[in-house]
Amino acid sequence: GNSLSRGSINGFIQKLKRISALNIFPNPKDKKEKTIEISYIGIAYFLHKLFKTSPI
């Protein structure tokens, strides 16, 4: 399989944030911890990208 580079993952996260499929909330109690919430549109988008790029 092909490995995802860190850059492509970060780009992907930025894209999901742009289409508001992904919300990242900093945890007020723990600054290092973040809560990531992904919407159904984000999951659908991810699956779509996954299947579009994989040669089946």
Q: What does this 3D model show about the protein?
A:
By secondary structure, the chain is of the alpha+beta class. The protein has one domain. Helix content is 48%, strand content 18%. It is built from two helices and two strands; from the N terminus they run αββα. Strands 1-2 form a two-stranded antiparallel sheet. A hairpin with a 7-residue loop joins strand 1 and strand 2. The longest helix is centred in the last third of the chain and has 14 residues. The relative contact order is 0.15.
* Coarse morphology: globular
Distance between the termini: 12 Å
| Element-by-element helix/strand order | HEEH
Q: Estimate percent helicity.
A: 40-55%
For the largest sheet, list the strands in their spatial order.
1-2
Helix count from the secondary structure assignment? 2
Largest sheet: 2 strands, antiparallel
Mean of residue pLDDT values: 75
- Give the percentage of residues in beta strands: 15-25%
Can you tell me the number of structural domains?
A: 1
How many β strands by DSSP?
2
Secondary-structure-derived class: alpha+beta
Radius of gyration: 13 Å
Poorly predicted ranges (pLDDT <50, ≥5 residues)? none
Short description:
The chain has 56 residues and is α+β, with helices and mostly antiparallel strands. The protein has helices at 6-18, 40-53; strands at 22-26, 34-38.
Mind sketching the topology for me?
Layout (H helix, E strand, L loop, with lengths): L5 H13 L3 E5 L7 E5 L1 H14 L3
Antiparallel strand pairs: 1-2
Keywords:
alpha+beta, two-stranded antiparallel ribbon
